[in-house]
Amino acid sequence: MPLIPEEPQIHESAQGPRATPASGRTAPTPRPVPGPRPVAPPRPGRPGPLRPAPPVQRTPHDVAVAKPAVPGPAAPVTSAPTPIPASASASAAPQIQLIPASAAGALDAAEEAVDLLLDSGRAPGEVLVITTGDHHPWATHELSFGEAAYWAQHDAGDDVFYADATAASRAVSRPVVVVAVNGGSAAAVAEALPLAHARAGALLIVCGDPQQINSVLGVGV
After folding, report:
1. What is the mean pLDDT of residues 191-198?
2. Element (DSSP H or E) covering residue 206
3. What is the mean pLDDT of residues 163-184?
4. What is the 8-class DSSP label of residue 158?
5. Is the pLDDT of residue 100 over 70?
6. Residue 26 burial (CB < 10 Å; 0-12/13-18/19+)?
7. Model confidence at 177, in pLDDT bands (50, 70, 90)?
């Protein structure tokens, strides 16, 4: 009687890939799929329109600008910070206020003073800023488009205008003049301060060394 070959038997182990790793190997652990990153919260900022000046790299300074106060009669320059009024009575001699600052910190002190003036109600077109050393970054930016475009901003009279001591003689008078004694020669400072005093209709704010400023303006400390 002929033998019938047996049908091959299929074992469960041959059904597919092994459920357990081969001996001596470790099965890789599946990595989780990263989800979407959470949206970063917005940085806190100051609402309102952007200033025309480009970003300024500020340096620390030791100047503390006082909060605005009700304007009083004209007073001599003092060696301590004095309040910056929102308005001052027009007179032949403007009120003089001094904010002590080093040459490196004078520009920052002037910016603080301008911010306080605007926050307290001054219109931007009422403020002129004069530097005795390097140009303010806004002035440098605008001058890159040419003298005509730069002075057109001045003639429009609708925003804060920044000029160095050599260009300030061309600027017209404004109710408030802020001077940053941020360097320059002694002769440049001696020329800029009387010019700023003549251009200020109601208030002159000077940021710099008190002794140097008082000696130039001829006011006792």
Report:
1. 94
2. strand 200-208
3. 94
4. S
5. yes
6. exposed
7. very high
